[in-house]
Design goal:
By secondary structure, this protein is an alpha+beta fold. The protein contains three helices and four strands.
C-alpha cells in the first residue's frame, strides 16, 4: 500500500533542515520511499516535505516517518498521512 506524507516545518526551521539534510538523504536511501521532495516558499527556501511511502498500513507509515532524521530533530510542526493509490505515471 502507498501513503502520502505531507510534512510542514516549524517557522524559521531552515537552518535545522539544512543541518539535518545529509542524514535525511542517507535515511531515504534505505527507506521504502520511491518519491520525496521538499515544499518551497516564494523565495525557494525549503519549508516542508512530501513523501510517498510504501507500507503495510497507516501505523507502519507513521512509524517509518518517526525514524526520519528530520522528525527526530523536531523539524515538523504538522504531519499528515493519507492512503494513496498510483493513478498516472506509475513507475514500471
Amino acid at each position: 500500500m502507498h501513503f502520502v506524507a505531507i510534512l510542514t516545518d516549524y517557522d524559521g526551521a531552515l537552518e535545522k533542515r539544512v543541518a539535518t539534510r545529509p542524514a535525511h538523504l542517507d535515511w531515504l536511501k534505505t527507506a521504502p520511499v520511491p518519491i520525496a521532495g521538499p515544499f518551497l516558499d516564494a523565495k525557494g527556501d525549503m519549508v516542508g516535505s512530501m513523501l510517498v511511502i510504501e507500507a503495510e498500513d497507516e501505523a507502519a507509515a507513521k512509524a517509518l516517518l518517526a525514524e526520519d532524521p528530520y522528525a527526530k530533530a523536531g523539524l515538523f510542526k504538522s504531519v499528515e498521512v493519507k492512503a494513496w493509490r498510483w493513478g498516472w505515471g506509475k513507475p514500471a
